[in-house]
Amino acid sequence: MFTYSIDKELSLKLLAYEDAEELYELSDRSREHLQTWLPWIHATKSPSDTHQFIKSALKRYAENDGLTVCIVYRGKIAGTIDLHQLDWSNKKTSVGYWIGDEYKGQGLLTRSCQALFAHVFKNLGMNRIEIRADVRNTKSRAVPERLGFVQEGIIRQAAMLYGRPSDHAVYGMLAEDWKHE
Questions:
Q1: Nearest-angstrom CA–CA distance, 163 and 113
Q2: Which residues sit opposite 86 in a β-bridge?
Q3: How far apart are the C-alpha atoms of 130 and 56, rounded to whole Å?
Q4: What is the pLDDT of residue 37?
Q5: Residue 110's pLDDT is what?
Q6: 37: helix, coil or strand?
Q7: Nearest-5° angle of CA 145, CA 149, CA 151?
Q8: What is the domain-level CATH number for residue 66?
Q9: What pTM was estimated for this model as a whole?
Q10: Which residue, 39, 24, 36, is CA-closest to 139?
Q11: Taking Cα atoms as reference points, which of 79, 69, 64 lies closest to residue 30?
């Protein structure tokens, strides 16, 4: 199983079925915070919904087409980071993430992304990581900005968010530009 220790208090681990209850409870406690940008929260009504998400994430992992990890802080799940697709032929992936409300503002998400991205470049051999975020989501955009990603542009009306068009800022990092160890 994939696990990576960042320091004594912070680590990443592959999402597993036994995480369903704890992950659901975290998302439920963070519902108000998450719903602004992540509409999937409305479909997450029970631990069984989270179990189904884990099932699909593990299927993608088994097919070598994704990786979803839990951010574990002081022994508790604090959020997740998801490599949405591992495009092996083009050596690139895109990333999504969220952190529980009670863990915001501690730098956990940035440190966790930094560690995972080092793994993506060094061990998986990817050449490019892409992050997209609604242009109004300044907290989500701050993660790639702190890690030195280049804002490559704005995709107008890239998605629908609650029936309204959402413009996305696109950030990219290339393996040759990654400076973090």
A1: 30
A2: 93
A3: 21
A4: 85
A5: 96
A6: coil
A7: 80
A8: 3.40.630.30
A9: 0.92
A10: 36
A11: 79
Among candidates 133, 153, 128, 156, which has minimal Cα distance to 143? 133
**Residue 122 pLDDT > 80:** yes
Residue 178 is classified by DSSP as -
User: Please, are residues 93 and 85 in contact by the beta-carbon 8 Å criterion?
Assistant: yes
Residue range 71-107, pLDDT digits in tens: 999 999 999 999 998 999 999 999 999 999 999 999 9
For the chain, how many residues are written?
181
- CA-CA distances (angstroms) from residue 141 to 75, 78, 123? 27, 19, 25
| Widest CA span in the chain | 43
Contacts with 115 (C-beta within 8 Å, 6 or more apart), sequence order:
4, 6, 12
CA pair distance 175, 120, nearest whole angstrom: 9
The amino acid that residue 26 corresponds to is: L
The span from the CA of 130 to the CA of 25, in Å, is 29
Structure tokens at 176: 């040759």
CA distance 156 to 35: 21
Strand order of the sheet with strand 76-87?
3-5, 10-14, 67-73, 76-87, 92-99, 128-134, 164-174, 150-161
> In total, how many domains does the chain have?
1
Share of the chain residues as helix, strand and coil, in percent rounded to the nearest 5: 40, 35, 25
Q: Which domain holds residue 123?
A: 3-177
